[in-house]
Structures are given as structure tokens and as C-alpha cells.
Design goal:
Maf-like; dTTP diphosphatase activity; dTTP/UTP pyrophosphatase; ITPase-like_fam
């Protein structure tokens, strides 16, 4: 079991996301949360997975020269990619409404990049899930935003919340990736790192 193999390692999850922290608990992994503030700015020429790869590495760079031999630092970033545009976190109700109207009745990609950093190496992997919303009514969009205030989520929605339950028609790929962490990818990568 991975938990046993990680006994001599210190897994550091650099994420304040309660969803990512919960996934680590549910995977039965011992970990500590360590947070650093990073300005999430990326070069404008980057597209899709290039953005989340870059930001996951950027978050890891804040811990440079701090990692001990036994440490495995995990940083990640999620991007919602639609019609050649990245839909980041909405700042307010208006931005959230604009984003959800763009996604309504359409397919989009949810891309999560995960960066595994030790004192000796760095691995960056990403997972891409295709998600299709039904045609959402203005009333459904407004109800969701007012009740759930999804301003901490890329694309202004959480698939595990009300709008996911009533609005997602189809999904191709990892469900946990859309929630914010491709758990199977993380588990398998950690397993290979400590073999």
C-alpha cells in the first residue's frame, strides 16, 4: 500500500482547497498542508494545459531551497478551457454569470496540472476532462450563483454542487479532475516515485 511506502517521506500539499485536502484524506494518505501566497500570472501566449502546467510549477517555485530530502511537495492548478479561452475564477456575480452563459449548452475542457517536487527532481503531469453542460436557464444560473457563490472555482462552478447535479449532461474523463484533483494520477505517480 502507498501509505506504507510513504512512511519515510513527508508529503506536503501546497493547496488551501478543501476539496483537494479531502481527496488526500480519502486516499488514506498522510500529508501536511503548507501554504504560500503566489501571484498567479502567466505569459499570455500560453494555452490550455500550458497555463495550468506553468502555474503548478510557479506555485512550487515558492518553496525553492526549502525542501528536505524526504519531502514530496505537491502543487496543482485547474483551468477551464472553452473556445480557445481560459475561464479563471470569477470576481463577482456578473463575471460568474457571463462564464456560465458561455458554458451553457457547450462542451469545455477542465485541465488540472499536478507538480510533484522533491529536492532532486520535478514531475509535471496533467489530466484533461471533457464536460458538457445542458442549456442552462438564466434563472438556474442566477440561483446557483446566489446560493453557492462559486468565486473560488475555475469556470465559476463546482461539478459536485447543485449546478453539476442538474446541469452536467456528459463527462469524458476523470470526475475527480473536474472537482480539482485527478486522484488516480496523483496516487499512481506517488507510487512510482517511492518504488
Amino acid at each position: 500500500m502507498l501509505k506504507e511506502k510513504l512512511r519515510n517521506h513527508n508529503v506536503i500539499l501546497a493547496s488551501g482547497s478543501p476539496r483537494r485536502q479531502q481527496f488526500f484524506k480519502e486516499m488514506e494518505l498522510d500529508f501536511e498542508v503548507r501554504l504560500k501566497s503566489v501571484e498567479e500570472v502567466y505569459p499570455s501566449k500560453l494555452k490550455a494545459a500550458e497555463i495550468s502546467d506553468y502555474l503548478a510549477k510557479l506555485k512550487a517555485s515558492a518553496f525553492k531551497n526549502e525542501l528536505e530530502t524526504k519531502d514530496i511537495l505537491i502543487t496543482s492548478d485547474t483551468v477551464v478551457w472553452h473556445n480557445n479561452e481560459s475561464l479563471a475564477k470569477a470576481a463577482n456575480n456578473t463575471e460568474a454569470e457571463v462564464m456560465l452563459k458561455k458554458l451553457s449548452g457547450e462542451w469545455h475542457q477542465v485541465i488540472t496540472s499536478v507538480c510533484f517536487t522533491t529536492s532532486e527532481r520535478q514531475i509535471v503531469l496533467n489530466s484533461i476532462t471533457e464536460v458538457k453542460f445542458k442549456d442552462l436557464t438564466d434563472e438556474e444560473i442566477r440561483f446557483y450563483i446566489e446560493k453557492f457563490t462559486p468565486f473560488d472555482k475555475a469556470g465559476a462552478y463546482g461539478i459536485q454542487e447543485w449546478i453539476g447535479l442538474i446541469g452536467i449532461e456528459e463527462i469524458k474523463g476523470s470526475y475527480t479532475n473536474v472537482v480539482g484533483l485527478p486522484t488516480q494520477l496523483v496516487y499512481d505517480t506517488l507510487t512510482k516515485m517511492v518504488e
